[in-house]
Amino acid sequence: MHFAKMHALGNDFMVIDSVTQKVFLNPKTIQALADRHRGIGFDQLLLIEPPYDPDTDFHYRIFNADGSEVNQCGNGARCFALYVTLQGLTNKNDIYVTTNNGRMILSINHNTVKVNMGAPNFTPKKVPFKANTPEHFYMITTAKGVQLCGVVSMGNPHCVVTVDNVNTADVTGIGPLIENHERFPERTNVPFMEIVSPTEIKVRVWERGAGETQACGSGCCGAVAVGIRQGKLKPNTPITVHTLGGDLEIQWSGVEGEPLFMTGPASFVYTGKINSNTIRQIRALHLAQLARKQELAAQANAASAPTQTATNAQTSAPVQNSTAAHNASSANNANATLSEEQAQAELENDPENFTIRSNA
Ligand SMILES: N[C@@H](CCC[C@H](N)C(=O)O)C(=O)O
Question: What ipTM score was computed for the predicted complex, to two decimals?
């Protein structure tokens, strides 16, 4: 399987063209490939498919590092535009694409891409977010206190928390608590925004399914949309957004229903080829490592809660052990090299595979 490694402000991607080659993927394979120690390592995987709509040039799908499929990715959109241009798949400056979120127009100028991200949507049901009416501010109660935030969909959910200082914000502590909060039935991304001036902000994002990333395009768009709606940022003016990985320029009129525009760079890192045997091995070793981690966590729990040891020993421990044993044995099996055809057939026949549209 041929792929490219790309990034946009350090938010990194594995990009796979399934128009010209057969690809077999499922959530576990994606998680394994995303592993930064045993796999290729990335925040998101972009899968290019033939157009679903005859008026567009391409369709692409987006998967988080945890294997979940999502509908929107701002930095991914810019990398996608650069990829299809550099690979000679299009020579258009305005590229029409669809994702699971609908249509987008990507305008490329050298390594800079302007993306029409569509209209921010503040309707709770569309996010989805549990609230009766759309409000400018919501209070979300977490184990780390009550957070004052704004909630918006940019095609994907964002819960924007305004902080005094992004450098000291507890992104990795509060982020996962809000990501998995019961008011977000499909989980959420959590941008932390520091207002520098009405035209400048700093943003760090805890991403759903990927953890804190160097930058999150849709998260920065969500922050600007919420900042304008809450009266903290200026509408109809380019807003400079500083992320850990660099700067974006984002502009929105502030009028509901009108699109928001994001402009920023995209970078190509390398192209690679990975064969089916290697994918099998990466997957098996990743699963074995996961089981090992679960076992260690169970042991640590048992040690810190002596009164529960007997119950754990009778119930969860045998299950953990059998999972670990199963994964360890698949790790060993994966070390036995198959012919490429056999390895490919094994990947191809995994019942958890997604359906992928391809011309290959
Ligand atoms: N990094 C992306 C967003 C990727 C998807 C997100 N984690 C989600 O689950 O919605 C961006 O640049 O927008």
Answer: 0.99
